[in-house]
Amino acid sequence: MPPLSVSSGGAGPRAPARPPAAPGATGLVFPPAGAAARVGAASPAPHRGGSAERAAGAPGDGGGRRACGRGAGGERGGVRTWGRGPRGDDFQLNSHLSTLANIHKIYHTLNRLNLTEDVGQDDHQTGERLSKIRRIGSLRSCSSSDCFSKVMPPRKKRRPAAGDDLSAKKSRHDGMYRKYDSTRIKAEEEVFSSKRCLEWFYEYAGTDDIVGPEGMEKFCEDIGVEPENVVMLVLAWKLDAQNMGYFTLQEWLKGMTSLQCDTTEKLRNSLDYLRSLLNEPTNFKLIYRYAFDFAREKDQRSLDINTAKCMLGLLLGKTWSLFPVFHQFLEQSKYKVINKDQWCNVLEFSRTINLDLSNYDEDGAWPVLLDEFVEWYKGKQMT
Asked: Please, what's the b/e burial string for 160-194 (b: 16 or more CB within 10 A of its CB; e: otherwise)?
């Protein structure tokens, strides 16, 4: 049923209602929020009146057509339209156009400053376009380049795809794990382990608690040292081994712990250190005295002459210039054994007596063995 309008006087015939106007006949129809309430309070309800009402300037029907005057609101077919006042359609249109123009200017300014992000092929999508407009519109309150530089991030490179990003993260994670794992294993290997040292011992001892001649031979082969090498004597001294050619479990664990060696590689790397101990006079003297007890038979108080010659050659052969002559003297002498006092005095003689024997005191506290050597050597020089 078409709407009816009531005149101000309440009398007079009711004119038939006009048909609704075609959409868009008066331009944009964007009434601002609360406009209906404001218009309703500013103007009386529209009604149909006669010529008197039109002459009086009241809003009414002009020749069968209802229009809205300047600054007044009217009704057309149940649709409320707005005039050209300060709150009319033109104001709304100009406001929207001004906002869009400002956004357009800001966007191009950001482009010239290289502050916008790269736009991919999907920029035509509505969501991205609206997101960009909102982001740029939020910058309207900033009037200086400092504000832009604070809000907008620096230009970034294109981020990789999701699959590439996951692969890169996994690769970095695996690399970090491998690095951590290798570092942890290396640290564990560097720390001395009694368990690893025990396993190392049984590689040469087999089922026994002692490394015998066969195991010793394999052990020397693994560390790259001949059994007759002096470094093996130094190693035996560090282990405090009691019998030549044998290492017990207790000797092994005690000595290798002091050396912090639990693998063949670690001991091989410690050989230079063991050799360097021979260059220290105090250590050399301790090793020299240890050699006598290490090499002798345990039921004998003296050292067999042949064993003594070998051990003296091992310890003094490269450092005492008179050793070849002394070795020759022992071979032609009547001595079958050497006691510990004679053994220790040979070292003292090699350190204190000149090569020409000029400072040797025959009345000194030297053993008879050395008196005989001096007499034999001088007679040999005279002949």
From this structure: eeeeeeeeeeeeeeeeeeeeeeeeeeeeeeeeeee
Q: What is the pLDDT of residues 10-22, one digit of tens each?
A: 444 444 444 444 4
Q: How far apart are CA 310 and CA 329, in angstroms?
A: 14
3-state DSSP assignment of residue 323: helix
Token representation of residue 373:
């050597």
DSSP structure class, residue 14: P
Per-residue confidence (pLDDT) for residue 164, from 0 to 100: 57
In angstroms, the CA 337 to CA 292 distance is 12
Q: Which residues contact 355 (CB under 8 A, 6 or more apart)?
A: 321, 322
What would the DSSP string read from start to end of 187-241?
A: HHHHS--HHHHHHHHHHHHTTSSEE-HHHHHHHHHHHT--TTSHHHHHHHHHHT-
Query: Is the per-residue pLDDT at 95 higher than 50?
Result: yes
Give the pair of three-digit tokens for residue 255.
């000595």
The whole-number average pLDDT for the span 210-228 is 94
When computed from its CA atoms, the radius of gyration of the chain, rounded to whole angstroms, is 57
